[in-house]
Design brief:
The chain is an alpha+beta fold. It contains four helices and eight strands, in the order H-H-E-E-E-E-E-E-E-E-H-H. The strands form two sheets. It has a four-stranded antiparallel β-sheet. Strands 2-7-4-5 form a four-stranded antiparallel β-sheet, covered by helices on one side. It is globular.
Length: about 160
């Protein structure tokens, strides 16, 4: 996909729509389109986290493994981001990410974006501020899910 087309695609999504044209251009150079069938594993817990995802169409499930089975802690739908593991060493996925239905994504290369953030600190600040919102949302979702699971269970 041409960079200008990717830039337009990113600009059309709320999560990136307020980025300056130069920021969108930098982000677009790290981005590519991907598709997954329903049930496909997009990322596996413990594997290298080389990118993160913007959901264009479809839905992703963020899942943790527990002794009782797989626990869906959150989902990401159109216009939402999935993945923060690319931000923090050791750059490994902390959960599985699975396509719940046929899903089209923009995969954004984490190393490429980290390099651009390092080279352009103002851009880096704006991007990290944006991803902090995603991280906060995911942690809150996990907290609420855990509260639901352990409601009525007394920990001593």
């Amino acid at each position: 996909m041409r960079t200008s087309t990717m830039r337009e695609l990113l600009a059309a999504e709320d999560v990136f729509s307020d980025l300056a044209p130069d920021d969108l251009a930098l982000l677009a150079t790290c981005s590519r389109n991907e598709q997954f069938r329903a049930g496909s594993l997009v990322a596996r817990e413990g594997e290298p986290a080389e990118c993160f995802y913007l959901v264009r169409h479809g839905r992703l499930a963020i899942e943790l493994h527990s002794p009782g089975g797989t626990l869906r802690i959150d989902t990401a739908g159109p216009g939402e981001l999935a993945g923060w593991s690319w931000l923090f060493p050791p750059y490994r996925w902390t959960a599985d990410v699975r396509a719940v239905e046929p899903t089209r994504l923009v995969a954004i290369d984490g190393r490429c974006l980290r390099d651009k953030c390092e080279a352009e600190p103002v851009f880096g600040y704006r991007m990290m501020h944006r991803f902090n919102r995603v991280l906060t949302h995911r942690l809150e979702a996990m907290r609420l899910r855990l509260l639901d699971l352990y409601r009525g269970t007394r920990v001593s």
